[in-house]
Design goal:
The chain is of the alpha+beta class. The chain is built from 11 helices and 9 strands.
């Protein structure tokens, strides 16, 4: 089994590392690493997994993740089909101890310390704060040395005093994924993403993970904090939400597109997860525009 992936490890002589990635699609590898990460998307759409949350993301997505919090930004299928599309993201990695415990425990740093603790649940940045941070990140990519460090401290200060933050995972979320789970969970994620439009049988996925069905069910829930069936349902409804907002297909067409054989089952599950019906979800979205 692979160890936790460190895509761009921070050199031991530096406090942080800023990378701009322009690729046909985002890296689909489900992974985690000991560094904090601020991901600022500039191009690309798809499905974002952070901890036990499944959400759609657009070309202005911004998320702060804590140390060893599993995540992946999975591009939409069209980015894998060689249609001349591309993605762009600027990622800032920094170590949990880059400021040192003595400095971080001072009274003046209390809000930043709490921000970093909250990042263990994943934090989505929205509103005017996101706009401010995007400008700083773009500038920081071209900076070096102490200027780069000052920009990161400025970002952390802005985030620590902002109300434009949304906790991605629920209070009490605990990451139970270990290094040895990386390859197995990657196989499972890929299979589900590639087959969610069709029937997904527990026995098939368990076989892929080289486990008995009952053992796999327990294993999957212990790693994702939700049952296998709930995970698939949340993925399908997340995809349905995106389709309801981005095209003119009927609710019935979207239900079939997202793996539901009957509209009644789709409507029931959609309301159970979102609190509203597909028609009302689309109507409310169009009213906001």
């Amino acid at each position: 089994m692979k160890s936790a992936i460190r895509k761009f490890p921070i050199p031991s002589t530096k406090c942080l590392k800023v990378k701009q990635l322009i690729e046909p699609h985002f890296d689909p590898t489900w992974h985690f690493h000991p560094e904090f990460q601020l991901a600022c998307v500039f191009q690309g759409t798809g499905t974002r997994y952070v901890g036990d949350d499944i959400s759609q993301f657009d070309s202005d997505d911004m998320v702060l993740t804590g140390a060893n919090l599993p995540h992946v930004w999975r591009s939409d299928d069209k980015y894998f089909e060689n249609k001349g599309l591309s993605t762009k993201v600027i990622v800032t990695y920094f170590s949990p101890d880059f400021m040192g415990d003595i400095f971080l425990n001072k009274d003046e740093m209390a809000k930043i310390k709490q921000l970093l603790i909250s990042a263990d649940r994943g934090i989505e940045i929205v509103g005017n704060t996101k706009k401010r941070i995007r400008k700083i990140v773009q500038k920081m990519y071209h900076q070096e040395g102490f200027e780069e460090v000052l920009s990161l401290l400025n970002i952390l200060h802005i985030l620590s005093t902002s109300n434009d933050l949304r906790m991605i995972n629920k209070q009490g979320y605990v990451n139970r994924v270990s290094d040895s789970d990386s390859s197995r969970m990657q196989l499972v994620h890929n299979y589900i993403l590639n087959h969610y439009k069709a029937e997904i049988r527990l026995e098939e996925v368990a076989k892929l993970a080289n486990m008995a069905p009952n053992s796999f069910s327990r294993y999957f829930k212990s790693r994702t904090n939700k049952s296998f069936t709930d995970f698939i349902a949340e993925l399908r409804i997340s995809m349905a939400c995106k389709l309801l907002k981005t095209n003119n297909q009927s609710v019935i067409q979207i239900a079939y597109e997202c793996g539901y054989k009957t509209p009644s089952n789709f409507n029931k599950k959609f309301k159970e997860i979102t609190g509203t019906t597909p028609k009302m979800y689309r109507k409310n979205y169009l009213q906001i525009l």
